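Q: How would the structure tokens look for this protein?
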Amino acid sequence: MSTTTASPLGKAVRTADDIVYLRMSAEDKAEAKELAAAEDRTTASFVRAMYLRGVADYKNKLAILRQTS
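A: Here is the predicted structure in token form.
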């Protein structure tokens, strides 16, 4: 069984195996649903992609902070 899949941007990503419940405001959920539809993705797929982008950004910022310390 493969553990990677192609993303809409052509990058390989890990498949999601576990369900994580996330609290969001009604406004945030509606916005995520709208943005996901614009990319022809499920809301869950879109939210996961945003999580992965956020974690990557966070790690990059931590690395920069560690270099300057």
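The chain has two helices and two strands.

The radius of gyration is 15 Å.

Upvote if useful.
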